[in-house]
Amino acid sequence: MDRATRKELKSDKFALEVQHGVEYVSTHRQLLARWGAVAAVAVVVILAVYLYMRHEAGVRLEAFQAAQRIQNATVGPAQSEYQLAYATQAEKDKAAQKAWTDLAVRYPSSDEGVIANFYLGGEAADNGKLDEAAKRFQVVIDRGSKDYAALAKLSLAQVYASQNKMKDARDLVQSVIDHPTATVSKEEAIIALAHILAPTDPQAARKLLEPLRGNERAAISRAALSAISELPK
Questions:
Q1: pTM here?
Q2: Fold category of 3-229 in CATH
């Protein structure tokens, strides 16, 4: 990532826009929880498009836009001559997989490559390929900015929890709690940890969530209350 981009990522405007996206995730936690790791990735990709369409330029952006256009394509007859469409979902998925993979391979250390790995990790998790998903999310943690790394840690923690690697999952989320970012606040990471603990240790999850019930941020308070209501009786 070049120096100019780093400065942009640290700007108040960037942090505010990202926070709005994260609050959407918190508010809709119950729905997103049904989707697993891929849900977080999908939201990140959508948010990243909104931000990086304005922050990046050149060949990488063109490749990124091409991949996103495929991702947003419809299945069935095109609604207009300007809209990309595929005959079947399988054809669309294949094209999207190739576009994101090419982007990840060609520009592995760029923001676009990091986002591509997010998408690929989510797709792998959604298809039950948890080892591949873990590798993709680890790439984001290793190569992405701290803002992307924090989100990738939460997704990887979900994968680890699915593999019954609870200590690894807890350690990852705890690292975000200890070092929150513009994309994941301390409170959001605590809620994520509670979701991971809930199936096996609902009492520990409740202990984490109770202090957040009356949080001054409405999205956090609602997310905590929702998570509490979902705890096993």
A1: 0.74
A2: 1.25.40
